[in-house]
Amino acid sequence: MIPRYSRPDMARIWEPENKFRIWFEIEAHACDAQAKLGVIPASAAKAVWEKGNKPYTAERVAHIDEIEKVTKHDVIAFTTELAEHVGPEARFIHQGMTSSDVLDTCLAVQLTQAADLLLSDIDGLLAALERRAFETRDVACMGRSHGIHAEPVTIGLKFAGFHAEFQRNRERLAAARKDIATCAISGAVGTFANIDPFVESHVAEKLGLTPEPLSTQIIPRDRHAMFFATLGVIASSMERVATEIRHLQRTEVREVEEYFSPGQKGSSAMPHKRNPVLTENITGLARLVRGMVTPALENVALWHERDISHSSVERMIGPDATVTLDFALARLTNVVANLVIYPDAILRNLNQLGGLIFSQRVLLALTQAGMSREDAYKAVQRNAMQVWNGQGRFLDLLKSDDEVVSHLGSAAIEALFDLGYHTKHVGTIFQRVFGRQE
Amino acid sequence: MIPRYSRPDMARIWEPENKFRIWFEIEAHACDAQAKLGVIPASAAKAVWEKGNKPYTAERVAHIDEIEKVTKHDVIAFTTELAEHVGPEARFIHQGMTSSDVLDTCLAVQLTQAADLLLSDIDGLLAALERRAFETRDVACMGRSHGIHAEPVTIGLKFAGFHAEFQRNRERLAAARKDIATCAISGAVGTFANIDPFVESHVAEKLGLTPEPLSTQIIPRDRHAMFFATLGVIASSMERVATEIRHLQRTEVREVEEYFSPGQKGSSAMPHKRNPVLTENITGLARLVRGMVTPALENVALWHERDISHSSVERMIGPDATVTLDFALARLTNVVANLVIYPDAILRNLNQLGGLIFSQRVLLALTQAGMSREDAYKAVQRNAMQVWNGQGRFLDLLKSDDEVVSHLGSAAIEALFDLGYHTKHVGTIFQRVFGRQE
Amino acid sequence: MIPRYSRPDMARIWEPENKFRIWFEIEAHACDAQAKLGVIPASAAKAVWEKGNKPYTAERVAHIDEIEKVTKHDVIAFTTELAEHVGPEARFIHQGMTSSDVLDTCLAVQLTQAADLLLSDIDGLLAALERRAFETRDVACMGRSHGIHAEPVTIGLKFAGFHAEFQRNRERLAAARKDIATCAISGAVGTFANIDPFVESHVAEKLGLTPEPLSTQIIPRDRHAMFFATLGVIASSMERVATEIRHLQRTEVREVEEYFSPGQKGSSAMPHKRNPVLTENITGLARLVRGMVTPALENVALWHERDISHSSVERMIGPDATVTLDFALARLTNVVANLVIYPDAILRNLNQLGGLIFSQRVLLALTQAGMSREDAYKAVQRNAMQVWNGQGRFLDLLKSDDEVVSHLGSAAIEALFDLGYHTKHVGTIFQRVFGRQE
Amino acid sequence: MIPRYSRPDMARIWEPENKFRIWFEIEAHACDAQAKLGVIPASAAKAVWEKGNKPYTAERVAHIDEIEKVTKHDVIAFTTELAEHVGPEARFIHQGMTSSDVLDTCLAVQLTQAADLLLSDIDGLLAALERRAFETRDVACMGRSHGIHAEPVTIGLKFAGFHAEFQRNRERLAAARKDIATCAISGAVGTFANIDPFVESHVAEKLGLTPEPLSTQIIPRDRHAMFFATLGVIASSMERVATEIRHLQRTEVREVEEYFSPGQKGSSAMPHKRNPVLTENITGLARLVRGMVTPALENVALWHERDISHSSVERMIGPDATVTLDFALARLTNVVANLVIYPDAILRNLNQLGGLIFSQRVLLALTQAGMSREDAYKAVQRNAMQVWNGQGRFLDLLKSDDEVVSHLGSAAIEALFDLGYHTKHVGTIFQRVFGRQE
After folding, report:
1. With CB atoms counted within 10 Å of each terminal CB, which end of chain D scores lower, N or C?
2. A145 has which bridge partners?
3. Which residues in chain B have their CB less than 8 angstroms from residue C283's CB?
4. Distance (Å, whole) CA C399 – CA C403
5. In this predicted model, what pLDDT tens digit does every residue of B112-158 receive, in sequence order?
6. A150–chain C nearest CA distance, Å
7. What is the ipTM of this complex?
8. Active-site residue set of A
9. What is the per-residue pLDDT across B160-209, written as a single tens digit (0 to 9) for each?
10. Has D267 been annotated as catalytic?
11. What whole-number distance in Å separates Cα of residue C204 and Cα of residue D281?
12. Nearest Cα residue to D193 out of A119, A40, C140, B363
């Protein structure tokens, strides 16, 4: 997590102020539950809320850090500091709980907070993609397979495809959020030996979590693995959009361009440069998030009821994966929203191959006119290769090819060269993706 | 995919016989739809089913391979061979379709077939885990954090925890199966220029798939990425179970043992060895499946409407990940079902630390008896460290500690040393995991 | 390892015939050493060579497999079959050795054999790159950063850069080969309790290996990890070359093209297509090899003196990584050797930006003529942006810009537009890479 | 890079103060070279050193950051600030160079600085391992394969094995350091169009680097990939040592223990706990470093002469991988140096299996006494299985087995039960690893 690639709302989730606030809520709600059970005095629970419910300021955080240097234990440092506010009844705080009850439930809250921000990022991206998709729904452009001109699509279809992909990512993230949103307050090895399961249910409800069915001091790590794996998929989708834009911006294509503000310098050495640096950056950020999936998967097989090897991993990838993805999604949304589109270039590229993009339609027409598929393929390829080698335009050549003309006639050949033929189902596809055609 | 780690049902999904069968069904159903639309003669569709609907034998597969050596194109080789059976009306097969329509829809069918087998594997594992969990529900054993004795759990809780984890994995796999189960018959760049969307819907319905909302010659690869990422999570859970068994079987612990058949040799050099080789093997297989996640993620960002770099990756990880996981899940099920459990060793280990496992309960009792948490911690640790250093049993030491006795009294101290205290909520947890307590 | 992506020489290394041959040699050389030590009769060692030194035919392999079904142990099956040839003195074979002595030393031999093939593949690639580099040394072409035209380079420089990279890869692979080429015959836990270290030295020498300084039944897996990590780096370099070619072949650039044989079909649907499918394939194969690095790294931390979790991983990635890389390197060599280069397109692209590629030189000239860098940058950018927006050619605009002209004069401006200025050090660079300029 | 897992010397390498210092040196040395070539006035080069050669204080860093907010370009911000110190002759700074010349050469310097620290960390670890190895050279302990008792080794052999592994890692890192230590000052696309190669050679020499043979604005990323892959191997070796210690510390084994200071608290809930938290932490840190290998490999295939997708990856993994590895190596050294070793427990475990560890030796003796290997194996296994099932000690059983006694006699059987037999070659192995036996 480095400032250059962080946004404040996501970064704040991982700051000590937020963490301690969540710890406080867990402990205070647990006290309420313990008081209801009669395990601790009601006055103690009340004291915790009345005297302890204050913001965790930078000063308090620093003080807790000081205490931790002595105790070498973060949760003990926290409760020690809290006791300074609450007074003698503080001894009832944390009764029957183990540190992991606090740490793991806190992580669950942080990850759901992070997931909510990411879901909102995706909503922003979806909105931008939808707007641009409808704006460009009918802007016919070259479709390319293998980087080679194939048949026409529309710019809008590209945006719509990304929209469909991010709808899926939204669903996946919502599922991953649910997977991670559990609360464990079950004691040293998860048996509730020293604490009633009611405490867990109570805290879970107050924090918007569900009780973990079976914890073993810790929440099982397959949940976190699934969460980070899902972020890895989203990062890869992001890279797909970024790669498309980078391709379309390259000098020879230049159908789109990242917005370039008037004063911006593209290169210290070459003043003419306007580079797709934002989408290149997103490509790199995607690699980073993807690189965190395997460590998260390796965290699953902890020893027996738990070991603590996952902890250092999560201290790093918890913030890094969510902050990086948040930043990258916001940047991508911005790129999409402001992407400059060049209709002239799009049209020029569409016409570049002299009509070759209609080759399949000609092939089908010849088949329907009675030629075998094999013969038709040969006839089309024969003319296509001439165009490819710069020896004429496809339509002209076909009209000079006796075998082709004898099957179709000149007028019918010309009628095949029609962009509308390719875009006639765009509305259908938009209906599928957006539930509306315009 | 190597025979040693393959089971026939899963391997068969990836054999040419199954692949060509699926291709045939795609093409034949597509012909039906085209005939309904009036694009091709009804007689042609009928001929395909009546003359072409035959098993793909080894001979036919070999013949198709021969043809491919000439055409250098697998789908063309396939339709060429099919034409030999169907006769002249075969020219209506594959009309308006592109190879990827067949290949990608086929892959979707294969992956759903594979997912169904894997779901059934998980069901088998869940059944074995549930049976063993209830058998050992009340077998108290040592719970360990950091590999160090903590407090008692039961063997049944271990099985129950794995059951809960594989319930989650089942849900994740079901979601991933749904994600992957789409059909694309949309032509060269996904615009339906040469084929009506009705063909896609028809084939999808017949094959138990849903139509892909927006394909671009191919089905978007975020779906496959999610599928393989999910397999990676399941593999990691499998490793967790395997690791637990390996730990419990090590000579110094030896609470459980993989079933060892009478004639089996553990080591060519050391005749006394009985090694947890099955769970070690599963550990390695988990690494393999996990290693396929990143290539699947890297497949997402294909160029423009598609490039073919994903293909070689999927040719390998499609079979390898599913076959390996299927084999490993079956092996794990077998290990769990036949695991030998040694109650004597379990009890011996439970008592190894001279009662230290009750330390927290003593701590809590002291707190409730009025000591500050800090003083209580010191009193307990003082005695615990003596036990740890081999200077007596915990109960005896506590009863000789004036400060402790003054707060609790000897009888109350003894009453704290009670296993039932730790297992009293096992039923509650079983209820959560299995919906029943016995 | 699938036939489609395998070449016979590399595949053969991993077949049982080769494996058993290596096992035989290890056992037979070990017998020689044991005989020299007087541990076994000299006649026994002689008998092994005289009666056992026969090719491992398919029949023998099948017979060994039959025996293994009974013994459930591969090395015992092997020695049992060998005993059928050698007779009663076969009981002296494998004395004091453990299976891993045979298995791990065999793997070392196989990996060095594989490394030798890969080194030879790289030599082939280097030769092709060198030839193409000198052929195109002076073919000026557009250099691109961020996919955007920057300043001129030459096609030869591209090849030379790949050559330099594969020289480094050759060195890395040679180091990795050395790392992996050790022999361990040290017994059940590596202590030589039952076998003299002389046996290890003797076998090592005969097989071209060095004795493993400290083995623990097995050769430590950091060696294998380094080997596979090195393959991952090589795969990534391969992907770099493949990506460059894919970019240069895309329709709008089309400066190069993979060789396309006359009868080849690019697309079943679009007869005009000529796709860079070989380099796309190499891109996917690179992902596969890279995906095997992490499992190899995870194999390092085996438990105590050894566990067997690494075995299944190596059974798969040993063949898969080497066979795939061998195939891909050969394919890449073929692509490079036969790459079609289009000088016209190269020139057209070079001129596409109307001279903008000289912008930096103009900037420098203005600075040298006394303008501040900031002012010069503004002057150049002002004109560059006009060109970028299609409002003229760069040279013309500069000659109409009073500020620029006042500093440089028209003639001097024109003189700056000189390709030779950019290529003047190509010879120097070739000297560095190839040790010769022509 | 989070403070908890950072050490100041390594962290400092990645701080702006160090970065700007390196940038200054690159620019200043480049000015010297340009002055020698007569490209810029000698007075300018002199001015840079005399007026600009001052420490980069926090104030200067902040000021550069301010400028960058306007210029949106880091190198321009840097040279702008430098100009404020140097005066008008500052316009000669950076002539003919491109930002990457500075950035990439700086990264090379930072990575070599980091490598030097890591090499020194490894030296520290090697020293600790060597000391502990000789201390415990003859402390016989159980060797374990598959977690099951096998035959005796010594504690010293374990340390020696790790020493040998880290010797190899030292060599690998030295090679990776050399790979990364190159200087590129070659201009916008690496052609030296605007700058003489002499500048590069001069700066390289002054900074202890070698000139990059062929750069393309940037240094090729296979170098960095190899560097990070090497760190991944080292991290995995570290995990191996950590895993061994975690195993040996588990309660049932407890042969060693991480040093536990008097006031330390192992658990807030269970006062008796002494957990191997340092080696667990190292295990997690190893996962993190390993997770950075794949992003580094994905950075290799940049587009054409360069794109900037690698940059964000390196901004994160550059510091994170080196800082984390440095911290973990130092922590591991500390763990090894202070590891508490329990000879009593080691001996107890060694005797746990009632002499089964001598089974192979008995097997060999029987073979040498004329039994077939198969019969001998059966005889040994028959008795071994009784021991395993708790029905007696191995020596007693063998002496009651008529077949065994008839071949060996009682006295000879007893003589086989000798620890010295297993440790007789420890000196030989130490000689190989350390070049000395004591």
Report:
1. C
2. A148, B306
3. 307, 309
4. 10
5. 999 999 999 999 999 999 999 999 999 999 999 999 999 999 999 99
6. 7
7. 0.95
8. 146, 267
9. 999 999 999 999 999 999 999 999 999 999 999 989 999 999 999 999 99
10. yes
11. 39
12. C140
- Picking from C149, C212, C300 by the largest number of D CB atoms within 10 A of its own CB, the best residue to mutate is C300
Q: Are B151 and D270 an interchain contact pair (Cβ–Cβ within 8 Å)?
A: yes
**Inter-residue contact A17 to A57 (CB < 8 Å):** yes
For B410, phi then psi, to 5°, come to -65, -45
Per-residue DSSP letter, B167: H
pLDDT at C75 over 70: yes
pLDDT at residue A23 tops 90: yes
Beta bridge partners, D225, equal none
The answer to whether the Cα torsion of A30, A35, A40, A46 is positive or negative is: positive
Measured CA to CA in angstroms, residue A362 lies from C208, C271, C359 at distances of 64, 10, 46
**D187 vs chain C: nearest CA distance in angstroms?**
10
* Cα distance between residue A310 and residue A299, in whole Å: 5
Q: Helix, strand or coil for residue B285?
A: helix
Chain D residues with CB inside 8 Å of B276's CB? 146-148
Structure token digits, residue B191: 């615009």
| Distance in angstroms (rounded) separating the CA atoms of residues D254 and D265 | 19
B370 or D323, greater pLDDT: D323
User: Cα distance from B416 to chain D (closest Cα, Å)?
Assistant: 15
SS3 content of chain C, % helix, strand, coil (to 5): 70, 5, 25
pLDDT beyond 90 at A3: no
Quick count: other Cβ atoms within 10 Å of Cβ A69?
8
- Give the rounded percent of residues in chain B with a pLDDT score beyond 70: 97
Q: Between vectors from CA C70 to CA C66 and to CA C71, what angle results, nearest 5°?
A: 110
Strands C182-183 and C148-154: unpaired
The pLDDT value given to residue C303: 98
**CA C138, CA C142: separation in Å to the nearest integer?**
12
Domains of chain B from N-terminus onward = 1-95 (1.10.275.10), 98-347 (1.20.200.10), 356-416 (1.10.40.30)
- Residues of chain D neighbouring C152 (CB-CB closer than 8 A): 189, 191, 193
Nearest to C161 among D216, D236, D240 (CB): D216
Residue C392 phi/psi, 5-degree rounding, is 120, 170
- State the Rg of chain C over Cα: 30
Question: To probe the interface with D, which of B141, B236, B250, B252 has the most D CB atoms within 10 Å?
Answer: B252
DSSP letter string, A125-149: HHHHHHHHHHHTTT-EEEEEETTEE
DSSP state at residue B414: H
Over residues A276-286, the pLDDT tens digits come to 999 999 999 99
Q: A189 and B147: CB-CB below 8 Å? A: no
Over residues C243-282, the pLDDT tens digits come to: 999 999 999 999 999 998 766 666 655 655 789 999 999 9
List the single residue in A187, A285, A291 with the smallest CB-CB distance to D292. A291
Query: pTM for the complete prediction?
Result: 0.96
Interface of D with C in 168-197 (CB under 8 A): 168-169, 172, 175, 179, 187-194, 197
Q: Please report, as a single letter, which amino acid is at residue D48.
A: V
Helix (H) or strand (E) holding D94: none
Partners of C165 on chain D (C-beta within 8 Å) are: 220, 222
Q: Tell me, yes or no, if D239 comes closer than 8 A to chain C by beta carbon.
A: yes
CA distance B237 to D316: 29
Give the number of residues written for chain D. Answer: 438
CA distance D341 to chain B (A): 13
Can you tell me whether residue A81 is helix, strand or coil?
Answer: helix
Instruction: Find chains touching chain D: ≥3 CB pairs under 8 Å.
Output: A, B, C
Question: Does B99 sit within 8 Å of C308, measured CB to CB?
Answer: no
Locate A45 and state its tokens.
């629970």
